[in-house]
Design brief:
Number of strands: 0
Distance between the termini: 46 Å
Shape: flat
Helix content: over 70%
Radius of gyration: 17 Å
Number of helices: 6
Order of helices and strands: HHHHHH
Length: 126
């Protein structure tokens, strides 16, 4: 039971990591100091997407699930959890590259705004 709980915790951490990779730049607009955390995390996430290898959290979660008596899964984290929602037929290499490019583009726009001195204000949020 403990292994299953820890595997679930790794899953939640992994989801948070993916969300932070994709959308963390938006937090940088509000809290500039997060840039020192977000840039390396985003680069790591994009490297995983472009290189096509699995994040180290994926085999960790699989191992914990097997130790807890559950079956692990084949493929990567996004392929297993996200592609069922976004890509019912499976995550192709082209789709993986597109996702990496979308993350890069979103963060490029956000960091362009940060570099220009833009900051989200109360009026911007309304």
């Amino acid at each position: 039971m403990l292994y299953r709980r820890v595997a679930d915790l790794v899953l939640v951490l992994h989801l948070a990591f993916v969300a932070f990779v994709a959308l963390g730049g938006l937090l940088v607009l509000r809290w500039r100091r997060l840039v020192w955390l977000h840039v390396p995390v985003a680069l790591w996430g994009m490297a995983i997407a472009y290189a096509g290898f699995a994040c180290p959290l994926t085999p960790l979660e699989n191992r914990l699930r097997r130790l807890g008596g559950e079956a692990g899964y084949q493929g990567g984290f996004i392929e297993h959890y996200v592609s069922a929602l976004l890509y019912p037929a499976g995550l192709t290499r082209e789709a993986q590259l597109l996702l990496g490019t979308l993350v890069l583009a979103l963060n490029a726009v956000v960091y362009w705004r940060v570099a220009r001195g833009g900051r989200v204000t109360a009026g911007d949020r309304a």
